[in-house]
Design goal:
13 strands, 37% helix, Beta-lactamase, 3-stranded antiparallel sheet
């Protein structure tokens, strides 16, 4: 009986010790847990360090964090650079819904009829054009050609076999839309405003033009709050204030990668694959490429194409991205829209987002 009592007492002491230790552990975890606002601030601090200008976060339909840095402010507009490209994808979705375009796989040569005499160009579809897999020489990222000149750029690869990043396909798309809109006496930018931007109340600060036509790959300048409206419209599946502006089904097509590059849809960067399988054309020449070659570094667009944004980040994350580290991230699974604007610097998407999402700084 005594032995039984001693054993029972011993088990009780061990059990209570376990509860005490576990309780302390829980308290310690609670004490060190990073709150949502702390995560956002960690990300903003990182952005500021690398020449950030703004960080704006919308969760649901509410702005939950907004900070301006390095002498920037809410009323200042910043170039989107290639972040502008994503407006073309939404324009294509709207044009399909409006029957200006049959579908995403309509041939470019149906509109640019002079391409019918070229066996390679004749096959290129609008989907391939805006997923940058059409095979065209895409030109120098820093120098978009005019629409007229873009149409005359040569083909380098068979359509669908290689991903090459650059402005030419977007200027070709501008020419497609220009011709389709002639009877309406609208420019592509007029159509974008009437069909999408005005209904969601998005005000452009300015948009550069070439030869009288809007620069489709890199012409937009927006404040952080205005760019965030575009992200919110996308996150909500094309709805604005309860009204469907563009079909969700069509917008969903924009965030489907290709076999050639799983991490690029139609004008949006994705985070679908981290296995290096993308078939990316390595460019030669151009000022930026020469600098990368000199430094022995891989271009940012090549790195994201091959490895995505981060294996530890949500797979449904997608973004519009531009030079100078302009970013519009949409993460549907987390109900988040994130704007980050910057002025070049050594900013890294994964480092920023792992702070914002995971609260990690290592």
């Amino acid at each position: 009986m005594a032995n039984h009592f001693v054993k029972k007492l011993l088990y009780t002491i061990i059990f209570l010790s376990f509860l005490s230790a576990f309780g302390c552990s829980v308290k310690a975890q609670n004490k060190t847990a990073v709150t949502e606002q702390q995560r956002y601030q960690l990300a903003a601090n990182y952005s500021r360090k690398y020449r950030g200008l703004s960080v704006l976060i919308i969760k649901g339909d509410k702005t939950v964090f907004e900070e301006y840095q390095n002498d920037f402010s809410a009323d200042k507009a910043q170039m989107l650079a290639s972040g502008t490209k994503s407006f073309a994808g939404v324009m294509l979705a709207a044009a399909t819904e409006d029957k200006l375009v049959k579908n995403f796989d309509e041939k470019v040569s149906d509109t640019i009829t002079e391409w019918k005499s070229d066996k390679q160009k004749e096959k290129i579809t609008l989907r391939q054009l805006l997923s940058l897999t059409g095979g065209l020489d895409t030109g120098d990222n820093g120098k978009p050609p005019t629409y007229k000149d873009a149409v005359n750029f040569p083909v380098k690869y068979d359509a669908g076999t290689m991903f090459e990043y650059g402005p030419v396909p977007f200027q070709v798309f501008g020419e497609v839309m220009r011709r389709k809109l002639l009877s309406k006496k609208e420019t592509p930018l007029d159509y974008l405003k009437r069909r999408i931007l005005d209904p969601i109340g998005l005000k452009i600060a300015s948009w550069t033009h070439q030869d009288g036509q809007p620069n489709i790959p890199s012409g937009a300048f927006l404040t952080a709050r205005e760019w965030a409206k575009f992200g919110l419209f996308l996150k909500n599946g094309g709805k604005w204030n309860g009204k469907q502006i563009v079909s969700k089904k069509l917008l969903d097509e924009l965030v489907v990668g290709t076999k050639t590059n799983p991490n690029y849809g139609l004008t949006f960067w994705l985070n679908r694959s981290n296995d290096g399988s993308a078939k990316v054309a390595e460019k030669t020449g151009g000022r930026m490429q020469r600098l990368q070659d000199l430094l022995g570094i891989e271009g940012e667009t090549t790195a994201i194409s091959k490895e995505g944004v981060g294996a530890d980040l949500p797979k449904d994350l997608y973004m519009a991205a531009g030079a100078g580290k302009q970013r519009l991230y949409i993460i549907p699974s987390m109900d988040l829209v994130i704007v980050r604007q910057g002025k070049f610097g050594r900013f890294d998407d994964r480092e920023f987002l792992k702070r914002l999402i995971l609260g990690k700084t290592d």
